[in-house]
């Protein structure tokens, strides 16, 4: 299996991954783990903060041999599913859900966020940096974080971070290199809010509808009150949490 490279403190494992890739070829699946990030990055250009030494902050480098850019949404879905499968081998009783597009939730709280940064060239994906931030051994969070939860809060157990990093890396790489048939319906079945009426905001307008799945372009499908099913890209809609 691919290497795990450990850092005590670094600006961002995603940034370090990009620097390594700029220096030359990198082994597929190489994973960078740090105990502390000083400039951790989150989705939508936000920052990602995590208590040093308590949480998982890793980047998995994937260098697919021939991946068309149009297949990226499927790959992003597989990454999330790979993390969930890996976590379930460790904690089978944990009720994990995919909060579309890139979060993993336990009930109504966020356990894990994913930031995937790709390099593209001539319609192909050159490399993917799969950044994963998971709340693991942290027991109290800053009050400005909306709804965090950690593994230790869910199970009462403390986790070894390098071992967890290897487990997650192996789960993701297995899903990416030989995803089982039926993975897409497994993904849909894990969607947070699937089949229930949820509240959303898009273009400043609030509305509600039922999540029915995610299409092959990675758009969330929402069935409106009049029965019409609309597809939303990740930058087009925001779920309003109750
Ligand atoms: C999110 O906003 O939910 C995504 C968070 C992703 C954070 C991880 S931590 C490891 C990797 N390095 C970063 O700078 N960000 C990602």
How are the SSEs placed, and which strands pair?
Layout: E1 4-10, H1 13-23, E2 31-37, E3 56-62, E4 67-68, H2 72-90, E5 96-99, E6 103-106, E7 109-121, E8 124-134, H3 151-155, H4 161-178, H5 183-189, E9 197-202, E10 205-214, E11 220-223, E12 229-232, E13 238-240
Parallel strand pairs: 1-2
Antiparallel strand pairs: 2-3, 3-8, 4-8, 5-6, 6-7, 7-8, 9-10, 9-13, 10-11, 11-12
Helix pairs in contact: 2-4, 2-5
The structure holds biotin.
Biotin is lined by residues 12-14, 37, 40-43, 46, 48, 57-59, 103, 113-115, 131-133.
How would you characterize this protein structure?
This protein is an alpha+beta fold. The chain has five helices and 13 strands. The protein has helices spanning 13-23, 72-90, 151-155, 161-178, 183-189, and strands spanning 4-10, 31-37, 56-62, 67-68, 96-99, 103-106, 109-121, 124-134, 197-202, 205-214, 220-223, 229-232, 238-240. The strands form two sheets. Strands 1, 2, 3, 4, 5, 6, 7 and 8 form an eight-stranded mixed β-sheet that branches. A five-stranded antiparallel β-sheet has the order 12-11-10-9-13, with no helix packed on it. A hairpin with a 2-residue loop joins β6 (103-106) and β7. α2 (72-90) packs across α4 and α2 (72-90) crosses α5 (183-189). It is globular and about 55 Å long. The relative contact order is 0.16. The protein binds biotin. Biotin (BTN) is lined by residues 12-14, 37, 40-43, 46, 48, 57-59, 103, 113-115, 131-133.
């Amino acid at each position: 299996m691919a290497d795990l490279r450990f850092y005590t403190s670094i600006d961002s494992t995603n940034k370090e991954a990009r620097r390594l890739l700029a220096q030359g070829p990198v082994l597929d699946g190489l994973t960078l783990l740090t105990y502390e990030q000083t400039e951790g990055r989150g989705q939508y250009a936000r920052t990602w903060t995590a208590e040093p030494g308590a949480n998982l902050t890793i980047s998995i480098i994937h260098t697919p041999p021939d991946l068309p850019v149009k297949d990226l949404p499927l790959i992003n879905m597989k990454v999330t599913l790979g993390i969930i499968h890996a976590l379930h081998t460790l904690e089978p009783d944990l009720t994990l859900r995919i909060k579309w597009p890139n979060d993993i939730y336990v009930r109504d709280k966020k356990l894990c966020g994913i930031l995937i940064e790709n390099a593209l060239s001539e319609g192909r994906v050159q490399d993917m940096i799969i950044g994963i931030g998971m709340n693991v051994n942290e027991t109290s969070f800053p009050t400005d974080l909306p709804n965090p939860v950690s593994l230790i809060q869910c199970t009462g157990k403390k986790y070894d971070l390098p071992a967890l990093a290897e487990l997650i890396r192996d789960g993701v790489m297995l899903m990416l290199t030989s995803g089982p048939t039926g993975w897409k319906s497994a993904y849909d079945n894990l969607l947070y809010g699937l089949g229930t009426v949820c509240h959303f905001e898009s273009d400043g307008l609030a509305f509600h509808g039922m999540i029915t799945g995610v299409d092959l372009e990675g758009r969330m499908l929402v069935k409106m009150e009049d029965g019409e099913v609309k597809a939303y890209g990740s930058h087009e809609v925001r779920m309003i949490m109750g």
